[in-house]
Amino acid sequence: MKIAQIAPFEEPVPPKKYGGTELVVYNLTEELVRRGHEVVLFASGDSKTSARLLPVFPKALRKTKIGSDLKTREAYKFLGISQILSTLLKERFDIIHNHIGWRLLPFAQILQDKIITTLHGPLNIGYQKLIYKKFHDLPYISISKNQRTPLSKLNFVANIYNGIDIERFPFNYKPKDYLAFLGRMSPEKGPVEAIKIAKKAKMKLIMAAKIDLVDQEYFAREVKPLIDDKQIKFIGEVNHQGKVKLLKNAKALITPIQWEEPFGLFFVEAMACGTPVIAFRMGSVPEVVKDGKTGFIVKNIKEAVEAVKNIDQIKREDCRIWVEKNFPIKKMVDDYEKIYYQIVKK
Predict the structure, then answer these.
(1) In this structure, what CATH number is given to the domain that contains residue 159?
(2) pTM of the model
(3) pLDDT in tens, 259-313
(4) Dihedral sign (CA 29, 123, 243, 46)
(5) Sign of CA dihedral 186, 188, 194, 197
(6) Domain span at residue 180?
(7) β-sheet bridge partners, residue 184
(8) What letters, b where the CB count within 10 A reaches 16 and e where it falls short, cover 36-72?
(9) What is the number of domains present in the chain?
């Protein structure tokens, strides 16, 4: 098949540091190429791929001067979509796979080829729901069943969990004596709650996270004053090697999320290293983490502290086996291929 993969413009594919969606797009694209498909990747020009790359912008938006202003960044996204559309109207594809969500949907009716959208973000944002409801008949793929809740009547053709390259996350039997926090320094990810848990459990916490433009004030006001570089250490945004080092050596990954997490690639990455996950019961958590087997699903800080004390009850090899069974790239791409062929035959 000839397949167009349309990636977000914020980060390169694959991301050099933070960027879950871009990493999923990379894994999917590379495996489709390995399977003999003709794949064209629409992404930033600093992306790396074995597919044919059609650069939307020379560099990922967050790495340019554009990235310092959110409204300008939004305007550039639509300029990017305009460029993509001009190519899609000239060049035929069997499947157009949309990973940029609602922004592309109003233009779907002018495209000659069949389009499918993987929803990588939450579906409870008002203005986005307006667009999704308007185009509810288009085919959608969720990345967790919980993600569907706000818009359960969309035309969901499949639920496909994100997959990772497990071999890039070495297993470690013998962790060091600290907890890890990974992700974004944003209220929904719960960094303040993670610090409270570590302090109450009397454990060292190492935090690696991206501070996006919209979260800078929150970080400065709420999080930074709690970092002492002794018990609570912040090491900034890390690359893949830094992420692996953090995860594989941690006693547990602490994820006291405050929102309906659509998937949480970092849950899977931690478990692949053998590191159990302690997470609040929200969003995709009950689907991705096996309670009592690959970590503990808790309701509040008090339960999380108790989970930290009992973390040695979790066998680290069970975490790895769980990921190998449920979240490898091969399984993800098998599921996507099946949907592609179903849509092409319609």
Answers:
(1) 3.40.50.2000
(2) 0.94
(3) 999 999 999 999 999 999 999 999 999 999 999 999 999 999 999 999 999 999 9
(4) positive
(5) positive
(6) 166-326
(7) 210
(8) ebebbbbbbebbebebebbbbbebbbbeeebbeeeee
(9) 2
